[in-house]
Design goal:
Blueprint: E1 9-12, H1 17-25, H2 32-40, E2 55-59, H3 65-79, H4 85-107, E3 112-114, E4 120-122, H5 127-143
Antiparallel strand pairs: 1-2, 3-4
Helix pairs in contact: 2-3, 2-4, 3-4
Length: 147
């Protein structure tokens, strides 16, 4: 498990940052690391798109041991080797980006706003509905037969 993340920063697309902040402000999440970790485990487009300029979301040392273990396991599953913290978070930034893209285009497509700068936010008053849809999606995945 990763312990020494030092001053490593976790980054996201600037257009997704307002959504992270909105979820934190509305108390749908307690820390950015929670939602980032969730997004890493969501399906995403098989073809990854260039994230372009990315901006800091939080420090890697804000992740709990549980979150770091989960992310490390996902990193191992994808690369078949134990990754150093900087490699792991670089990979997880791409996974979280793909998961966020899935949320915006599939689960929450009718619950999000895009402003002229293409910043993504939930339509005011739709935070609860967004949470319900995410919970139902995860619950459905837990109930699927794996073969």
């Amino acid at each position: 498990m990763i312990k020494d993340t030092g001053s490593l920063r976790v980054r996201v697309r600037p257009t997704y940052l307002p959504l992270y902040k909105q979820l934190l402000k509305s108390r749908q999440i307690r820390q950015h690391s929670e939602f980032f970790t969730t997004c890493c485990f969501l399906p995403g487009p098989s073809e990854r798109v260039d994230m372009g300029n990315i901006t800091e979301l939080c420090q890697a040392n804000s992740f709990t041991d549980y979150q770091l273990t989960a992310l490390s396991s996902l990193g191992y599953k994808k690369s078949q080797r134990i990754l150093e913290p900087n490699e792991l978070f670089e990979m997880m930034e791409k996974e979280a980006d793909a998961g966020m893209t899935f949320l915006i285009t599939e689960l929450w497509h009718d619950l999000v706003n895009l402003n002229q700068d293409e910043d993504v936010t939930l339509i005011p008053g739709q935070e609860f509905e967004a949470q319900v849809r995410l919970i139902k999606f995860v619950q459905g995945k837990l109930e699927e037969v794996p073969f």
